Amino acid sequence: MNRTNYSETGTTIAAISTPQAPGGIGVIRISGPDARKIAGRVFSPSGKKSLEELPGYTALYGRVFDESGAIDEAIALNFRAPKSFTGENVVELSCHGGLVILRRLLRAVIRAGAEPAGPGEFTRRAFLNGKIGLTEAESVMQLVSAQGEQAAKAALAGHEGALERRIASIRGKLLGAAAHLSAWADYPEDDIPQVTGEELKTSLGEVKAELDALLRGFDAGRVLREGVDTVIAGRPNTGKSTLMNLLAGCERSIVTSYAGTTRDIVEDTVLLGGIPLRLADTAGLRDTADPVESIGVGRARERVRSARLVLAVFDSSQELDESDRALIREVGDTPCVAVVNKSDLPIKINKEYIENNIKQTVYLSALTGAGLSRLEDAVASVLGTKELDPSDGMLYTERQRDAAARSLQSVTEALDALESGMTFDAVTVSVEDAVSALLELTGERATVAVVDSVFSRFCVGK
User: Coil, strand, or helix at residue 101?
Assistant: First the structure.
């Protein structure tokens, strides 16, 4: 879509920009051409300066009020267009973070002339006014919702333009190829060096590799953003519950020396090496005549089948039995780390059998915590995040992934056309389609419906 200067015709909007919960400080954000005028109707500075004469990036202390009197002490922070987040005039009123205070102040601001902001409307205006790109806007939501440090780093890099720059580099290579092809086809009589098919294959092959890497990073990045459903499984008394407690950092599961203590599923979410794991500690896998325990074992097997990651726990101080071997078979193709527990005891287990059947095998003591770092590395390897650099530009959303996939498909079609000996005109069409998909990804050629969809997912006040 073509961006317009929203501030020329836009209304002035307002919303609470801090969490809707009691806190030390709360902020009302006002954005639009009349931001200072409206703020001046509810804010009284303690000194002689007024908001209208205040330079940008400066603040005034005073009080906020409505028709019934003073609401609270406050600080008014002034931003002058275009040097603000939205690109418009912005005033932020900071007061104490009580919900009664904030809601009363917001009502006063709306009565003074502002309109209530819709979901993501501040960030939408920043996009429409050219302050940020669409992928940078999407990274704002990822930053707000990040569950771990790695995800937050990746989102911050995106907000600072890492993905935009990566896409721009790929697009530049495609545009260079398209321009050369078009110039040679349109003006064959001019002295334009003819690009060869092999040169095009090399250039487009490099672009294909970059798009492939970008799409692979999406799956790994999703692990950091959304977390992974993880099951701790094994026969009774292998130390599953002790491992659960070690990872959770507290006593979430009951630990005893009696087999079959855990009967129902115990769940918790933890961060392991920056990866959010939604853990499920399950009943020990074995044949049992106890009807209650049998239900727990059945649920455990169901979780193993549906898990995204299995931590298969074995007791290193015991020989492998049929329950252990059955677990290895049940895991199948599911990403799995073999956790050979009780490494502080003499080892009797058949290590070779486990290592031959489960690629990632670690030895640790859930009781002492020794070997936990090895488990972190193994989980990262299995889930594909070990080599992931959060500072690289990453795809965050299905919309972005879809656009990148369409661009890759067009590049593949261009390479196929070259291989089959088709004309350069046919190659040019596919290259231009690849460029178009990337322009949609960055928002430079996104439809109004796409932009509306992106910002509808934001919260009010962002």
Answer: helix
